């Protein structure tokens, strides 16, 4: 509707109870929705928010990843209707479980809360009195209170388990496990991204858990791709698997997935929002995110992974080729074996030729036009890293040009 026409309509608005009214009566008289008068608000502009090209990766502080159109459609469509929250959770869970070879699944508030809720589920089972007791004085309530974890598997995220009130018991060898298992032991937890750092690998971890009839659990938060990791650990027999939804899967950033045995997931739900008097009440996930998470996972599983990998390699090629021309530069490409498994470019330079520290280059990229984030932290003063999997198509050319400009400008002479 054109502006002029709207004003005309307002001018013709009837007097209701002797008071001239504006747009509301138009709606009742003509049965049409209130026309949009103002142009769409742009909050990014209004609040002067810095947007940037993400050549760093799925870092939580950088908002990790961008949701695809199908995810936003799921979110927008469901935002217009009321649906019972548990019905969404249950029905989305059934579909996700099928996709990942699990008995059951649920959408959580990130992988972190998946870990907390899964742990809570193991501790309480379907006992509502126990649910109310977490996270305090577990032993007094007859709840098991110890979780075995390899020393090399501490990375900070095990705090999600401690939040239930359990104590972590560090081990290094299977002999250690034999020694520390006791009647208070609740489970054995594994951090997938530190597989190579620990002495005990998946199969042996599960074997030891079976020996003592304990649930084995695993954190694979950032470990997709490869897509097969979505089901690999369910197939292996872990009791629960915690996955981040907002990293490479590109679901809502604050969503995650807990998948595994039905008994554990059912109990995890009991410990979760919308139920009150639970440790999970503050981990609320709305229906939009549950459906958005499902749409993202569906998209992710069904996309052409080989084609995507090829696209990443092409981007790497564009950047490497441009930078390699500069004297004193060395470019190498590696792929982290687990977690953020995608090509990573390392650019290092001879400090006698290029007068720039990694921090300086990071700032030049950040405050340049357009703003670009790269991995400019770390120990080596004369090197930075970048990834290409969070770039939008074509942005690799901008990244290549900007890096070339800054690095060649810093060349002596
Ligand atoms: C990112 C990450 C988490 C937390 O995931 P969220 O989805 O942000 O809650 C947990 N564990 C590991 C290993 C991670 O990399």
From TrEMBL:
It comes from the Bacteria. This is L-seryl-tRNA(Ser) seleniumtransferase. The lineage of its organism: Bacteria, Pseudomonadati, Bacteroidota, Flavobacteriia, Flavobacteriales. One of its GO terms (molecular function) is L-seryl-tRNA(Sec) selenium transferase activity. Its cofactor is pyridoxal 5'-phosphate. It comes from Arenibacter echinorum. InterPro entries: PyrdxlP-dep_Trfase (IPR015424), PyrdxlP-dep_Trfase_major (IPR015421). The keyword Cytoplasm does not apply. Keywords: Pyridoxal phosphate, Transferase. The keyword Transcription regulation does not apply.
